[in-house]
Amino acid sequence: MRPLTSQQTLNTRLKHAARLGLLCAGLSTLMLPATANAADTDVPDTIKWTIPFGVGGGTDVWARFFAPWFSESLAGEPTIMIDNVPGGGSINGANLFAVRAKSDGSQWLGTSASTQYPAMLGDPRVRYDYADWKPILATPTGGVVYASPEMGQDADSALQALLKQPVKLAAQSPTGVELPVLIALDMLDVDVDPVFGMRSRGEGRLAFERGEANIDFQTTSAYLSNVQPLVDDGKAIPLFSLGVLNDEGQIVRDPTFPDLPTFNEVYKQTKGEAPSGNAYEAYRKFFASGYALQKLVMVPVDTPEALTEAYRQAARDFIKTDKFKEESAAQLGPYTPIIGDTVSAHLEDAMSIKDETRQWLITWLADKFDVHLATR
Amino acid sequence: MFDILLSSLGQVFTLSHLLYMMLGVIVGLVVGIIPGLGGIAGMSLLLPFLYGMDPSVALGMLMGLVAVIPTGDTFASVLLGIPGSSASQATVIDGFSLAKRGQAARALSSAFLSSMAGGLIGAAVLTGFILIAQPLVLAFSSSELFMLTLLGLSMVAVLSGRDLFKGLAACGLGLLVGGMGMAPATGEFRLNFGLDYLYDGLPLVVVGLGIFALPEIIELLVQRGTIANEPCRLGQGWRQGFRDVRRERGLVARCAGFGSLIGTIPGLAGSVVDWMTYGHAVQSAKDKGEFGQGDIRGVIAPESANNACACGAMVPTLLFGVPGSGSAAVFLGGLLLLGLQPGISMIETHLDLTYTIIWSLALANIVGAGLCLGLAGPVASLTRVRFTILAPLITVLILFAAYQATRATGDLVALAVVGAIGVLFKKANWSRPAFLIGFVLAPGAETYFYQAVQFQGSAAFARPGVLIIGALILAVLFIPAFKALWVKRRQSKTSGVTASPETAKAAEQSPMIGAVDVLLLAGLLGLAAFAWSDVAGLSMLGSVFPMLAIAIMALGCLAEAARYALRRPQWQHQACREELVWLTGFCALIAVILGLGFISTAALFCLVFLLGIARLKLWTAAGMAIGVVAFLVGMAHFLTLTYPSGLLDPWFFS
């Protein structure tokens, strides 16, 4: 009879469990937060910040860094809840936000270069439009292209050597964050042979360190922590930086790398004229949207103006503090976030890519790398 | 260095550090035990607290979490046949078989002990290795990584045994399914049939749940018993588990050492390790007959490897900022949030923090395994509950887990489709591990092959590392055959006529074939033709890998068909009407979920199932249904999860 009794005790245990379940259910309904019911211009109690990337990724960490700063600087210290919706290299999350987000200021979106690029290229999966959103804040980044010392002992000789032999660059995908770098190298007549399929820029750097790639590119914070030691050991030669965008929308030297020429300078030096034409137009637009405005905090365009201004003001308030400056140096690198209308102007300029330029880019990708983009 | 080692040990044993690490361990166990959540959910729970914390304390907390996830997910693998995370797929095969034989407590306790041992060995290896690891990590170029994925794929031959062609076909299908999504070389999209969901390929969690868990649930429902079909006293299982680990200490040490080294290679996720060590356990065993039916070594090997692998994965994460596994990727995010940039500075200027991480890893492994051991006995008694009572709860749990993969309707549909394949595979005895190995290794095999050729040209395959791994692969494939041949010859020499009766019988046995086999052969060949036409229009670099997968699948099927044609097969009755009824029910359930919403449907489904099929009393059933609702609402609240909302959910639960 033993099995039967054990069955009975199990059933009674299950009954206990069921009772516990009832209790839990009751408690949890009591503890759920009461839904907010505030007037239009009041800062909502809870802000849901959609991050179309996975937990722990670059944009996620960026958002989690900013969330407490915003929360503390806004009236009523709202709870900022980060909602990760990864997939499709951020297209899925942005699509969902475009369809579902309410424009009462309670919903934000964090975007990055990989959200901007498909929209500019007319990727058929994209169902969002940057004109439907307006920016609160943008954080820029810079980047440096560097070569292996096999190419030459200093930047000049390395650049000369680059023109003579095909070089390999480990990249993520033809339309990934390396796109402006690929255009830039091509404009300099470097015969670049990209190897795609890296899962991150970090993997690309690893391929460089292993000696598989002889040219590489990193954004500023990764460059400072992982490439600078290589440069110091003579294992990497910095060639040029991408520069930064000043308030007038011109590309100038990156204050982080005051001694390093920008791509524009290198071009002018080797070709004797300033870069121009469709290739440069594509470079400039993708540089602006992917680097100068790399990561953006966006709200739906119908969000009340007063509320949007409150968010922007909060950002202006906290970026002035010393504590923010100190902590952001570790997180964002040595760049100051840009806020409000400056972002809007730059963003509008960057995202409005001419059909002619886009067509050039599509043909270029097909000719150069045998990559055939699906576009709308 | 020694003083830093000791000072960080002192840091680990401070009260605040211990408390936060315990918090990490507990969160890690909870998210590890609930299938489908894993490290990422745990991190998202802890990350909000992280910002502004003292780095060494925060690292202890994160490490506590990362270290115990491969321990906690063993519960689901052993008790329910659900691969809790990618680290415990191989555990399912023998662990769940042991549970079905009433030895869940034995399987669990040896799993936890070997996890603990593996974690400790991994931490010990890491202590010295991290200082010299940099050149080794850099020695693995894309060509060596490709060879390692091949080594993983060669395990298909080990695991499929006599049904080699079926195994090949299954592996080919896995490779094909794994090749869906973006082609790494050209960025083209393959085999997505115009569906947005398939642009990223199928998520591993969904495939794992579909191929392993769903067929087991359905089989248990058809049998109408308990999970454990042989009675067993629990206390005994405990002691037996301890004895097993002690007896197999050599295996534990080998697998843990191997796991921690493979873990250090960036880009090869932990999912390769458990198959490789499982294959090793099979090959090194003298008596292989029990593998797949419940051999404890099939649990010990992957479990000691996966915790060690989690330790090893810290090397590329800390030194290069390139995570070696999924949870290491999330850990990397935590590091960045603490303002620490990974890189060589982690051993030059922050060596104390690095050793704090390693000590926390070791300590968390001990604590985590200890807690799990305590839970093992009581939780193992679940296997003696009537399965019809558990079935609705487990069904809701796997739907919940699958939907968390990408939070798209497609997750549920894909679960049903893969589940149907799993049911057919199980019925006709086609190797499901072979399918999963193919699926898991497809992206690595393709990407690394392409990169190796692009970077190094034909020189890629003359590198010493490549040749060494190549020799290993040949050894895996051919040594067992030679050994068998040799043993046979010696036996026939020494004893003349009395060749081992079993091998003789096995050789004589004609192949079995049934309706499901025929269906699968025809279906896979049809799929091959269809998929070929889909990828034929792509560029050469984009289409060559799926074509290779199709070729493997088609050749496997054709060879199997030829085998039937040459040797007259025995017709085997493979009735699966009941399975199909349950499967249809499952699809209907998904349809209702999409219509009404997940929480409402889950509650209704549990209630109806428990009353109508399990025949429980009304209030017990109601209590359990409410418990399910509380679980789902609680998870959504604390982990900011979402479910399919449908028509009813917004009314009741928002």
From TrEMBL, chain A:
Keyword Transferase: no
Coiled coil: none
Alphabetized InterPro entries for the sequence: BUG, Bug_dom1
Keywords assigned: Receptor, Signal
Leader sequence segment: 1-38
PANTHER family documented for this protein: BLR1237 PROTEIN, TRICARBOXYLATE-BINDING PROTEIN
Family (UniProt): Belongs to the UPF0065 (bug) family.
Protein name per Swiss-Prot or TrEMBL: Tripartite-type tricarboxylate transporter, receptor component TctC
Organism in which the protein naturally occurs: Modicisalibacter xianhensis
Taxonomic placement: Bacteria, Pseudomonadati, Pseudomonadota, Gammaproteobacteria, Oceanospirillales
TrEMBL record, chain B:
Protein's UniProt keywords contain Ribosomal protein: no
Keywords: Membrane, Transmembrane, Transmembrane helix
Domain DUF112: residue ranges: 18-436
Membrane spanning residue stretches: 20-42, 49-69, 75-99, 111-132, 138-160, 167-185, 197-214, 328-347, 353-375, 387-406, 412-428, 435-453, 465-486, 512-532, 538-559, 580-613, 619-639
Domain of life according to the entry: Bacteria
InterPro entries xref list: DUF112_TM
Pfam families listed in its UniProt record: TctA (PF01970)
The protein's name: TctA family transporter
The organism of origin for this protein: Modicisalibacter xianhensis
Taxonomic classification: Bacteria, Pseudomonadati, Pseudomonadota, Gammaproteobacteria, Oceanospirillales
